[in-house]
Design brief:
alpha/beta, Purple Acid Phosphatase, chain A, domain 2, 9-stranded mixed sheet, 7-stranded mixed sheet, 5 helices, globular
């Protein structure tokens, strides 16, 4: 089943959302309900973890799933591009689910990728699932990219200089309790120094932000920007519920 593009149940009567913009290392960024991030000052759209052709990868192993995840992901990516009209698009790694994924793309999906990447500066960041993204799809391939105060890479550094780091990899999601209900949604995670994006792919799952794998990157706490039904809601880490909490 194709994943929803936003969280469920966070309605206007719930706690008021903060300014939808967030700031990382001085750069003002806008989280989109699709899971994309827009940087107006650089006309740059950022997405992470598309995992194109994940369903066909599972099917090859005998786990039959509806083969529509790539088309759905590209449809929403195209929608984000039409909304923001970026001059640059950065894909933060794991754009393809595996090394053979490009060969499994059908002709229509392949043509859509080439058309999207042809009209703007397009950067494929290397990921752990696609350490060598194909270079014949348009754009250029890089291990990481620094633009002004921000550095874009697939996975957050465990140590060292990471001020201004923007990454993906973990597919963060968060849970909150609103009006006696537990609500879970994909989210952006930031402490103002670094930022982790949610997975953009239609069939990607997620990891709770309170899991040590994510939380260790934000020792002093963070804000989770949850993707609600029609807006982005910001919650401090102290307000979130862990996987086993009521």
């Amino acid at each position: 089943m194709i994943a929803q593009r936003s969280g469920k149940g966070l309605e206007p009567r719930d706690p008021e959302p903060r300014d939808p913009a967030l700031t990382v290392n001085g750069a003002r960024l806008h989280p989109d309900l699709s899971g994309a991030l827009f940087w107006p000052d650089r006309s740059t759209l950022v997405v992470s973890d598309l995992h194109l052709e994940k369903a066909s990868s599972f099917a090859a192993k005998g786990h039959l799933l509806p083969p529509y995840d790539t088309a759905d992901t590209l449809h929403h990516l195209q929608g984000a591009i039409l909304r923001f009209r970026p001059a640059r698009v950065i894909c933060l790694g794991d754009s393809f689910h595996d090394g053979e994924a490009p060969a499994r793309l059908d002709g229509e999906d392949a043509a859509r990728i080439r058309a999207l990447s042809a009209d703007r500066d397009w950067i494929w960041i290397r990921g752990n699932h696609d350490p060598a993204p194909p270079e014949d799809w348009g754009g250029r391939v890089a291990s990481e990219l620094t633009l002004g105060p921000l550095t874009f890479r697939h996975e957050a550094l465990a140590a060292g200089p990471f001020g201004g780091e923007v990454s993906g990899h973990y597919h963060p999601k968060a849970s909150v309790r609103v009006r006696a209900r537990r609500l879970t949604a994909r989210c952006f995670v930031t402490d103002g120094r670094r930022l982790i994006l949610p997975a953009f792919g239609a069939f990607t799952g997620g990891l709770d932000v309170l899991n040590p794998a994510i939380a260790r990157h934000f020792a002093a706490g963070f804000v989770a920007h949850l993707l609600g039904r029609d807006r982005v809601f910001a919650f401090p880490s102290a307000a979130l519920r862990g996987r086993l909490e009521p």
